[in-house]
Specification:
Largest sheet: 3 strands, mixed
Shape: flat
Number of helices: 8
CATH architecture of the largest domain: Roll
CATH class of the largest domain: Alpha Beta
Helix content: 25-40%
Structural class: alpha+beta
Order of helices and strands: EHEEHHHEEHHHEEEH
Strand content: 15-25%
CATH topology of the largest domain: CBS-domain
Strand order of the largest sheet: 1-2-3
CATH superfamily of the largest domain: CBS-domain
Radius of gyration: 21 Å
Distance between the termini: 38 Å
């Protein structure tokens, strides 16, 4: 099974772009017409930023006259990009670290595509299943208790926030609930 799928095999190559001097109204209409969640901003034939649905929330909420706002005023820049030769795993990590869902793909400073979280899921269902199985095997090993890395979030049993959550039978629990489960067994 091929696990290291390159970005070029998952990316969309027909990237819809817009100028930084365009209005946000024009950008919104283009996104609606093309059923897109974002547009890459091109200036002098180079990608310089991105505007997404999320960026429009700030315009409506914070700008006194949204109709007069230009794309360059709200675009995310500098642009975070990836190479078409990188793996989708690298793309997923970069998206996660940067807290983005759309990642323009550049080759020699030229925009050649865009990859989204949905694209990765679409091309890699077998790889995702394999990773789930590997994680399950790791958690069932006798040393898994020692090797398990905690994460932070809301405990699925008591609802309290914890800096350290543990995966116990596919449920993320705080240390207190984990000890309670261990006593019950």
């Amino acid at each position: 099974m091929k696990i290291d799928v390159p970005v070029r095999e998952a990316m969309v190559t027909n990237v819809i772009t817009i100028s930084p001097d365009s209005s946000v109204v024009e950008a919104a209409k283009k996104m609606i017409d093309k059923d897109l969640g974002g547009l890459v901003i091109i200036e002098k034939k180079k990608p310089v930023g991105i505007i997404t649905e999320h960026d429009f929330l700030g315009v409506v909420a914070k700008m006194p006259n949204p109709i007069e706002v230009k794309v360059k005023d709200i675009m995310s820049s500098p642009l975070i990009t990836i190479s078409p030769n990188s793996s989708i795993l690298e793309a997923a990590r970069l998206m996660n670290e940067s807290k983005i869902r759309k990642l323009p793909v550049k080759d020699n400073e030229k925009l050649v595509g865009i990859i989204t979280a949905e694209d990765i899921v679409r091309v890699a269902p077998k790889e995702i299943e394999l990773l789930k199985e590997l994680a399950k095997l790791k958690s069932e090993s006798p040393r898994s208790e020692f090797l398990q890395q905690p994460t932070s979030g809301e405990c699925e049993m008591c609802g309290n926030y914890s800096d350290y959550l543990y995966d116990v039978d596919d449920t993320y629990v705080c240390g207190e609930c984990k000890r309670a489960i261990s006593r019950e067994k």
